[in-house]
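Dear support,

Our group has been running a series of protein-ligand predictions, and this particular one with iron/sulfur cluster is the one our PI (initials K.S.) wants archived with full inputs and outputs. We had some confusion internally about which version of the output was final, so please treat the block below as the authoritative record. The input we submitted was:
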Amino acid sequence: MAEVTLTIDNEKVSAREGQNLLQVIREQGIDLPTLCHLDGLSERGGCRLCVVEVEGSSRLAASCVTAVREDMRVTTASDRLLRYRRMLVELLFAERNHVCSVCVMNGNCELQSLATRFGVDHLRYEPLYPRLPTDASHEKYTIDHNRCVLCARCVRVCDEVEGVHTLDIMGRGVSSRIINDLNQPWRASRTCTACGKCVQVCPTGALYIKETLSAHVEKRPDLPRRIVDARKKRVWNS
Amino acid sequence: MNREELESLALGERERASRFSCRFLCCAGTPCLSAGGAAVRKALEKAVEGKNGNSSVEVMGTGCVGPCSRGPLVTVVTPGEEEHTYEKVTPQAVPEIVEAHLEKGVEAASVPSTVSRDSSFFTKQQKIVLETSERIDPERLESYVAQGGYSALARALEDMTPEEVCEELVTSGLRGRGGAGYPTGIKWKQVRGAQGERKFVVANGDEGDPGAYMDRTLMESDPHRILEGMAIAAYAVGAEQGFVYVRGEYPLAAERLGKAIRAAERQGLLGDDILGSSFSFRIRIRMGAGAFVCGEETALMASIMGRRGQPVPRPPYPAQRGLWNAPTLINNVETFGSVPPVISRGGDWYSRWGTDKSKGTKIFALAGKVCQTGLIEVPMGITLREIVFDIGGGIPGGGAFKAAQTGGPSGGCIPASHLDTPMDYESLQELGSIIGSGGLIVMDESSCMVDVARFFMEFCMDESCGKCTPCRSGTVQMVRLLEKIKGGRASAHDLEKLEELCELLKATSLCGLGQTAPNPVLSTIRHFRHEYEAHIEDRHCPAGVCSMPH
Ligand SMILES: Cc1cc2nc3c(=O)[nH]c(=O)nc-3n(C[C@H](O)[C@H](O)[C@H](O)COP(=O)(O)O)c2cc1C
Ligand code: SF4
Ligand code: SF4
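Confirmed final output from the archive:
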């Protein structure tokens, strides 16, 4: 594939034509925030945290779903972008009931660390406080919708890597919800293999292994990439 | 069927129609039917039975006439005499009308025919897409053929190469009527040039803007026109399979399209070896299930393929990779409806109407506080004033025009100071609105613009698919902020927050729904900022719509 040269934050960078912009940005050591992106899974382009400015285009580009082009000039961290990212994180916090102090993921949560990173110490938006259920019917895992950010990593890993598509999304807008099979209690699922991949990729405390103690959870969001590499390239490394 | 047979079918049908000494044309569009049009038609059929030997009188259903709020409409056509169109016809009035026309003479009619064709409602319009709507029985293929139907397809297949068809569309200057106004000919060329073993053509009839019913009317009134437009497109881009995506709430449109497809297939106007050529094209109907976002092209394709109707990032554009990864042409129903006249009369002819950059005619659903609501087709570039005051007859009850909302939830409002703005893509965009798909809601002084903004924002919130954060979560916050303003509980800081959210959604949303959702808010702030300020600073709603704390 042909090489292209582009500019990222004023640095000249070379990449392969058609390569994913997010990947190229990260290869430069720039820690562009993401939530729905996960190496090894298909791109969703949903969280919008990875938006960047591309010169000559009036719209921002979500870098996870943008291919690099010759002579592209990309800015990854303008004041405007930082402000938008912060707003997005605030919106996520306002949307569900993220009470970190009583969450198993306190200290290991990706949403929490984004909030720390963007200095979100209070909410400018009205919290919606939705009344959402927790499904603890599965023998090993729990899904607590109060902490879900709808990144759909679980849905994708279950479909694309485990290959069973137990999980999906029901409803729309702010009432969207992750469901098992046709919205049944998890225990009743006849497709779930109890592999636990969904739990490992969940960025927050929405999916967790039962009886884990707060601050002791370590998830393995690198799992999908490792499995995919193992299958395709026959390598298993970290 | 070949071209000669098509012509003789047309001739036969015209001859059949000319044999009637009197024809009663009953509008069979949804507005007229819901006003009782079916009972009127039955009463007419019964009343003419046995009169004048029966066989020389015809009662037929037609497509939409236009002044929809006056239905049921019945037009009486007697050769050599002036036509009469009766409004708000009831079954009780039918015997009078029939008697007057068949026996006593029109002068004796005690029911006045009140829809005058000389009124500016009709004379200011330019009907190209709707030209034959009120003359066609939407359930009979022959009726469409008699008005020249399928001759454009025949012309394209026999006299033109696919490239020439694309070129003709480019010449016409036709732009997509689904909202964005993308040049149709260029899109066709892109699909034609895209690599793919198979290609698809899709007609977007998902029409979901509140108050809009242009596409429903077209599908109900003149279904064959859409099919013909699609077939011409399929020939031009090299597709063999097409889909019409019909909004779930439009059962009558789907039924008539279904009938039309079967009739066209029987006559060899769809299916294999169309009109004796080697070109084959089939069309299937897909019904939506009540999601506005399924009108967005990538969500629409997902829905056709049986997936969750949710947008996916573009590129790839449908023209590159669409249905089942094949190059796919998606056009709006009205866009396809404009194709047959472009081909039969030529792109140059079509481009005579409209402005420099916005050619041809556009159908609008005129609604709200205007004397004559209904479905109208006007040349692009007509002023809003002409639409509201000449065609619509002004504001009822002597009220004052305040603003018109175009483009529905993706559009904005045009205030009275801009009544002389030409209605074209560029001018409206400059004003912070869009032509959109053709919804046009007129508001008088009794409308509160904050309330209007909240209405559309709530619509977007309800219709957000939930995939991306800014639209899913931002629309909820924006509705809350607007409600706070409406309730007299907001501060200047809340207005800033609202504007900042508008900026976020525009810039970061994944699809057009979220990107354009702020438009009604932004345009009402732009043109009616004082109203927002009155709510915030004075705790006062100038229109008296919002209830304020005392
Ligand atoms: C949220 C949303 C809803 C849409 N709804 C419709 C619709 O109901 N009908 C339509 O023709 N286009 C709709 N569109 C535009 C389509 O995505 C697409 O641009 C259009 O069908 C292309 O046809 P055209 O080029 O003939 O306009 C919608 C777009 C968005 C973002
Ligand atoms: S445990 Fe495995 S199979 Fe079950 S829902 Fe999670 S990812 Fe899917
Ligand atoms: S902008 Fe709204 S409708 Fe479009 S993908 Fe995002 S959430 Fe869905």
